[in-house]
Amino acid sequence: MITEALQYAATSLVTPKQFRPFIRSSVSLWSRAGRCAKGWAAHEENCKAFIRETVAGMKQRRTVVVLGSGLLRDVPIDDLAAKFDTVVLVDLVHLASVRMRLKAKRFRNVRLISRDLSGFDDAAAAKVVEPLSFLRQVPYLDLVVSANILSQIGVGSKRRLEAENDPARDEILQRLIRAHLDGLAALPCKTALITDTAYRVTDRGGQVLEEADLLCGVPAPAAKRAWTWPVAPYGELSKDYQAVHDVIAL
Ligand SMILES: C[S@@+](CC[C@H](N)C(=O)[O-])C[C@H]1O[C@@H](n2cnc3c(N)ncnc32)[C@H](O)[C@@H]1O
Known about the structure:
Layout: H1 2-14, H2 23-35, H3 37-56, E1 63-67, H4 77-83, E2 86-91, H5 96-104, E3 110-114, H6 120-124, E4 141-147, H7 150-164, H8 169-185, E5 190-203, E6 208-213, E7 225-232, E8 241-249
Parallel strand pairs: 1-2, 1-4, 2-3, 4-5
Antiparallel strand pairs: 5-6, 5-8, 7-8
The chain binds S-adenosylmethionine.
């Protein structure tokens, strides 16, 4: 509790005002990631391996942008900083502990941007939704990594729409998910997309108690790799059941 309060306070000081409402959920992700480190390790290693593989096949490595860089748990930041001229990390919030870690490593080529990557405001105002259009302005862009953010765009936007009781909720959620996928597909550079697509809550006997599509009905693109991620291993939500997510990478 005390470390969470410190993390919250230190992050508030360095976060632009409009993004401060999102600090709480980043801090709670950080706490959960610490508690579930053992259960998440294989997923995090799979993500890093996939990004390293993608980079290994690239001849030109000038700028890489990481969308949803968050806690940098599933992003091989040392490799990216060593191999690219510039690394741009984009998220709603960059926690104080993440900033300190980057500072301690003395990276000179890593930049942090706070940005809402969902397109929510435009979708809610029935405008064209192009949340990744800012990437067109990034010079020498050779790689964009979408690092476990896509499902969170759906989850966060769903929460906001439920609060507003919007009848067009499902349609808006699908537009946001599609806008991220289409935005990545339209980029003239290499991309790596890692996302969870669905979850299941199961008991110790394997019985499915609850399941949901995390892409809100938008078909998942064909994957190069797929694995499962025990987001809430036994003991996190209950000793009797676990929540497991399906993850794809392409
Ligand atoms: C599951 S975490 C990703 C973990 C991260 N890649 C890592 O290595 O630790 C999802 C991340 O997406 C970010 N996120 C969620 N919605 C976002 C949005 N609309 N715009 C920007 N970032 C968002 C969250 O702040 C969080 O850091």
